[in-house]
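Posting this for the archive.
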Amino acid sequence: MPAWQDEDMDRYSPTVRRRRLGLALRRHREAHGWTLEDAATKLGVGPSQLSKYETADRNLPKPTLLLACSIYQISDPERAELVDMHAQSRARGWWQDLSIQPGTYVDFEAEATSIQSFDLGLIPGILQTDAYAEAIMSATRPDATPKQLEDWRKVRTSRVELLADDGPKVWSVIHEAALWTMVGGPEVMVEQLRHIAKLAETRPGLEVQVLPFTSGQYAGMEGSFSILTFDELPSLGYTEGATSGVWLEKQKDITTLTHAFGLLISQALNQRKSLARLEKITDWMAQGGRDLLEEVQP
């Protein structure tokens, strides 16, 4: 059973459910032709407060939701659906028990219908093995406790369950530099590269392309990014730095990232050639992968 499921609950993200709930309220308000000020007066809240409910920047109290359902004349079936969505938006995602807070990339990724990502220096988290993830976390979080490292490792490696048949379409472009970086040593990298190849060959919802060193300048030179698409919700863009990530919601930003991703996939090797490149690098790693590296040591 996937890590985000139990016997009574399907995969979902509390943060995404909160966005869905806010969007539903905004649509009903606009259907009545009411401004934020109009609706806020009827609900007994301030306009800025109502705006934050609609954009999911603040948790919506259940009494306010029930009053909104009455004022907006929402039908009983939809009212029940919104109340259920509200309950789920207040729950904890499976990852929150593993030192991961709501509003993170993992949170939104859990309910995306498609994920397009470009990764420059690392294997994307959704494709990482346990050993690779552990090596990365040990290097990038030197002050973390053993429990935090173990929790982050579990989150990283549980994310591969998103590649199930009912999961999102995942299109990953990986710069060749990430494949050659000897994270954890040759054995770890051999396992990691074989893992990517196996997933690409067996998961129909996954497309993997390698952007080779010979591609020259490319649209993602300034850093890694992702585009997440959802049912009935606006797409989100995400860029990640050394200490924090940035979410992009404006349509012009999403358009820019989408254009950049289109250029990247046109420059990258197709999946067949990408798997052939993976195989060659894996063979070199399996033989020790030392000669070339030793030659370029200062």
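The longest strand covers residues 233-240. Confidence is low (pLDDT under 50) at residues 1-12, 92-103.
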